[in-house]
Specification:
By secondary structure, the protein is of the alpha+beta class. The chain has helices at 3-15, 18-25, 29-43, 59-83, 98-115, and strands at 48-51, 54-57, 90-95, 119-124. The strands form two sheets. The chain has a two-stranded antiparallel ribbon. The protein has a two-stranded parallel sheet with strand order 3-4. Helix 5 (98-115) links the parallel strand 3 and strand 4.
Length: 125
Amino acid sequence: MNLTHMRSFVHVAELGSLSLAAERLQVSQPALSRQIHLLEEHLGVSLLHRTGRGVVPTEAGERLRESAYGIFEEIARVERDLAGTGQVGRRLSVGIPPSASATIAGQLVESYHLRYPAVSLQIIE
């Protein structure tokens, strides 16, 4: 199933209009209609009732729209989880003797923060 087609369908179902959804998605109305048609073909069901005033989701369309919200939330969660992969995170505590802290602590904190912005650095004398 194509996620772009699913997102397009959700916009159409929410707005009740192919032309408004096409405008919002910045695609032509024929291209949007084609995406919806391909999604309907793939699923083997009609997703929209076309009326003189626009479109309304069929029962299958309503079920797809509700499922799509969960799918989009899960995709966003995965993207958030993976966004920090490979990066150092959390908190680091560093002990420095009082005699050295005045001369190196400032530079240490600054350079470490530039290299590892997701790390909270705590200096302990």
